[in-house]
Design brief:
The chain is an alpha/beta fold and 365 residues long. The protein is 29% helix and 23% strand. β3, α3 and β4 form a beta-alpha-beta unit. The relative contact order is 0.10. The structure holds manganese (II) ion (MN). The site of manganese (II) ion has 7 residues, from loops.
Length: 365
């Protein structure tokens, strides 16, 4: 039985374009601190082996200090570390993986399949690397393991499972099933995939360990567990410094919006990055998002507010009236029924609200 930590997609030195420049600097710093937490986790878990499945660096132009921080952290882990470069950090002669001096316990795959036997741990590790930003054919095409008598088989690879159009190593679950592996430690997809099975092979994406935007929500982390011949037990371990959260807050019938927001944010911590989305039905009163922002920001590290409320149903009912208001609402309602685009729906809702407010202000009386 071998104790394994599996991580991927650190994307160190991501631009964090959604944040202010100062906060983006802070987040990049926090990404490097993630490496310290990884070292700690490996020690606390008494890991025998660490598998890192690519896209650890966000691109070829990471800061020298970042590359150094990665090398130093992986060295401090002390046990064998296997790193399979992905599309963002593909291996080439001038990549940090080639230029930097890496600690002796770190094995970086540099191209086609390699096999490293670790008989003292009772396992063997297979790995391959991206050598370009694209890998249009599956790296598992024609893959065959060796005999590996009595050893648990692990694989570390950056790949896109069952995505035939993908240009990022489009492996299939049939290929994983035929690989003969006990565990395939994959990278590329930024959300934890759960531990899946393809034939006798267990495979998983841990997801990225730090969210970088509202498309990477909630707890993020790495996988930890044990791999044996024919038996794999891996579980998700949160490792992120901050969570990105989208918090819907229903403001239907609420007078005090700040209070509604405070209630809706009860699960949000001062470390989180939170987008509050106001939902529900409202009348014609103006929604002052700017005035609401401080109430949101007081409850998280960084906050924003979006208005997704819709016009109250009884106001739409006026579309039956034989008046300019009736015609106006009737036209907008018909368009809303046909509309499938989220942004256009928002625009139509707003048009109905503003138009109705203007009409009720006198023009139609
Ligand atoms: Mn990738």
């Amino acid at each position: 039985m071998v104790r394994v930590i599996h991580g991927a997609d650190f994307h160190l030195d991501s631009p964090f374009a959604g944040l202010s420049p100062q906060r983006a600097v802070r987040r990049r710093q926090e990404q490097r601190e993630l490496l310290d937490r990884l070292v700690e986790l490996c020690r606390d878990s008494r890991a025998d082996l660490v598998l890192l499945s690519g896209d650890l660096l966000d691109g070829g132009r990471t800061f020298y200090e970042t590359n150094q921080a990665l090398a130093s952290a992986l060295g401090r882990i002390g046990v064998p570390v296997f790193l399979a470069p992905g599309n963002h950090d593909y291996y080439h002669g001038r990549s940090p993986y080639a230029l930097l001096r890496w600690p002796e316990n770190v094995h970086i795959f540099t191209g086609g399949w390699e096999r490293v036997a670790l008989p003292e741990l009772g396992c063997v590790v297979y790995g391959a690397a991206f050598t370009a930003p694209r890998q249009e054919t599956s790296l598992l095409d024609g893959f065959r393991p060796e005999q590996d008598e009595g050893l648990a088989r692990l694989m570390v690879l950056h790949a896109d499972v069952d995505a035939p159009q993908s240009r990022y190593d489009p492996v299939t679950s049939a290929q994983l099933a035929g690989s003969g592996m006990d565990y395939a430690a994959l990278g590329h997809v930024h959300a934890f995939s759960g531990v899946n099975r393809a034939g006798d092979t267990a495979w998983a994406y841990p997801g990225c360990p730090e969210g970088r935007g509202f498309d990477e929500l909630g707890e993020k982390g790495v996988l930890r567990g044990t791999v044996d011949r024919g038996e794999v037990k891996m579980e998700f371990v949160p490792l992120c410094r901050r969570r990105y959260l989208i918090q819907p807050v229903d403001v239907t019938g609420r007078e005090d919006l700040a209070a509604a927001v405070a209630e809706g944010m009860s699960g949000v911590t001062a470390e989180d990055i939170c987008r509050v989305v106001l939902t529900g039905e409202r009348g014609l009163e103006r929604l002052d998002l700017e005035a609401l922002l401080p109430a949101v920001e007081a409850r998280c590290w960084q906050g924003e507010v979006q208005d997704r409320t819709v016009l109250r149903r009884d106001l739409w009912a006026r579309r039956g009236e034989d008046s300019l208001t009736g015609l106006f609402l009737g036209e907008l309602a018909a368009r809303l029924e046909r509309c499938e685009d989220e942004q256009e729906r928002e625009l139509l809702e707003r048009a109905a609200r503003f138009g109705l407010a203007a009409l009720e202000g006198g023009e139609d009386r």
